[in-house]
Amino acid sequence: MALKGLDYFKFTPKTNCKECGCPTCMAFAMKVAQGGITIDKCPYIKPEDLAKLSEASAPPMKKFTVGTGKFEFSLGGETVLFRHEKTFVSKCLYGVNVTGDNVDKVLTEAKKVDYVRIGERMFCEVVNVEFTGDKAKFLDAVKKANSAERVVILDCTDTAAAKEAVDICKANKPVLNGANETNFADMSKIATDAGVLLGVRAESLEALYDVIQKIEASGNKNLVLDTGSKSVKDTFANAVEIRRTALNPKNGDRTFGYPSIVNLSKLSGGDHECEVALAAVFTLKYGSIIIMSGMDYAAALPLYGLRQNIFTDPQKPMRVEPGIYPINGADENSICATTVDFALSYFVASGEFERAGVPVNLIISDAGGYSVLTAWAAGKLTAASIAKFVKEKCEDKCKNKTLVLPGKVAVLKGELEESLPGWKIIVGPNEAVGIVKFMKDLK
In this structure, which CATH number among 3.40.50.150, 3.20.20.20, 1.10.8.50, 3.20.20.210 belongs to the domain 63-310? Predict the structure, then answer.
């Protein structure tokens, strides 16, 4: 059960020292209860009390990191079943399954998927190396996966092969997914000694529960749960039941409070379209790591778009970084256009400008992440804000002093002309669908 502000307040020094950044100890306690600050920000709580409070206030699903450097990602930490209740914390990761026989081909194709959407790099983050019985081929595949600059999952229940594989890539924080009812003690020792996450699997949820408890009893609580591969129905049921059990506020048992792995390459039967559809399903419910047999743009574009929409804070608008975005090879002599930083507005407008085939510098200023009319009504998109951004960021980079203004805020034209002497302000179409014709006519 989540602790309340008064529960935390009992352990504060009650001196209102403000060292935590809050005006009073009560304000600090309330902020901790709301998740706005961590309990360790108070330097005067006793270590033993801090440990108890940290454990009690920890999310019902443990949070871990895998990978290293720019390829480090978080898993878990979830607190709600549905995104609209609050927000999801750690985006699911997409990976490809490789064996000693196809590692080169699959990795080469997967690396081709690499693009940026709303400021986020979209690429295949994980390589799952499956042990198929030939240790030499398996270890060779592990070496290739380890050099691919991705998070590596070692899908192996053979303890000898697993030990050698972990030694190859442990510096990059892989996941050893191989503990089951018969080998969990040895696998747990291998993972613990190397300091990596251990993937746990079993024939049923009941058996999985028992294995997890035995591993936890040995002191290892750095786990990821494999949802199984008997059938789509069973795997889906397992993924949902694990998440529901972990996040149930009335359930004090956190045995299932770990991220999950869903391996679709073992479920789809080689049907790529089915695999993509299943990946979308488990993006929503509830795969932390989703493994596919391969990745291409046809699969990536809808999946990464879905993931980006789901794994964002619903209370914060999706927005792009303010700046100048050259389209169709635009340079300093190309015409300029402007719109807001609301992600949907940017993508719709930029897509239409690209279709027009005319070089244009799309100027995005800070409009609070709102749509054009909403930003204008809220005072976030004004002639002053546009003029200020253009003067600071664009004057020395854009020799063509023609600026196309969204038609819905044509009312700003006169004031903009006064604020930007030397610039020619043109009112564009009201809707993005009219951009192609407008730009071609403008030529």
Answer: 3.20.20.20
Q: Give the pLDDT of residue 442.
A: 85
Residues in Cβ contact with 377 at an 8 Å cutoff, skipping those fewer than 6 apart: none
Helix or strand or coil: residue 54? helix
Residue with tokens 């030694």: 167
Which pTM was predicted? 0.81
CATH of 323-442, one of 3.30.420.40, 3.40.50.11600, 2.30.110.10, 2.60.40.10: 3.40.50.11600
Whole-number Å distance between alpha carbons of 182 and 24 = 54
3-class DSSP assignment, residue 367: coil
Q: What's the gap between Cα 370 and its chain centre?
A: 22
In whole angstroms, what is the distance from residue 100 CA to residue 95 CA?
A: 16
* The pair of three-digit structure tokens given for residue 423, joined into one six-digit string: 């610039």
Please give the DSSP secondary-structure letter assigned to residue 10: T
Using one digit for the tens of pLDDT, what is the confidence trace for 173-205?
A: 999 999 999 999 999 999 999 999 999 999 999
Instruction: Break the chain into its structural domains and give their ranges.
Output: 5-57, 63-310, 323-442
Domain 5-57 is classified in which CATH homologous superfamily? Electron transport complex subunit B, putative Fe-S cluster (1.10.15.40)
Residue 116 one-letter amino acid: V
Q: Which of 220, 183, 175 has its CA nearest to residue 199?
A: 175
Q: How much is the mean pLDDT over the chain?
A: 93
Instruction: Spell out the SS3 assignment of 251-281.
Output: CCCCCCCCCEEEEHHHCCCCCHHHHHHHHHH
